[in-house]
Amino acid sequence: MIQPGTTVGAVTGRIKDMDRWLGDGGMELIGTVGASFDAYGVDGEDLGWVEGSFTPAAAACNPHGIVQAGVHGLLLDAAMNFAINAALAGRARTRATLEMKVETMRPAERGTAYRLRGQVVRLARQVAYGEGTVTDDAGRLVSRSTGTFLLHRPDDGPPAA
User: Fold this and answer.
1) Domain 8-152 classification at class level
2) This prediction's pTM
3) For residues 50 and 19, which has the higher predicted lDDT (pLDDT)?
4) Closest C-alpha among 80, 83, 2 to residue 39
5) Is the Cβ–Cβ distance between 129 and 88 less than 8 Å?
C-alpha cells in the first residue's frame, strides 16, 4: 500500500508507478470540483485500488449546494480508471469506459468532506471491471458505481493464429 507522501520509488514490489497522477488524476476538472487522489496500491490478488478525498466546491454543486449526479459520475469513473491502471503492468492502460452505472443514495453537500475509493473487481485480457464509492465521515455510502473498461496492452504481441 502506498501512503500519501510516499513515492513508488521508495516501495519495492510490482506496483506500477502512478505517483504523477496523485492529486487531480491528470484531469484539472477533478481538482476544480474539490477532489484529490491520495493513495493507491495493489492487493494480494494483483487488483488495484485508489483512495481519495472530496470536499465539494461550488463548481460541483447546484444552486442549493448539493453535488450534481454527473460530478459523482466523473469522480467514480476517474477512481475506477486509476485503480485499473495501477493494476496493469508496463505500458498497458485503460482506453475507454465501455459501460458505467452510477447510483446516488444520499445528497453530498458543498464543503462537507467525503472519501473516494476505486477498486478493480476483475481484470481480463481486453476488459476490466471496477467499482467506485463515495462515503461520508461515518462510512455511509453516498454514491457508488460499477463500470466496464476497454484495455490497451501495447506490450502484447499479435493474436495467435
Assistant:
1) alpha beta
2) 0.85
3) 50
4) 2
5) no
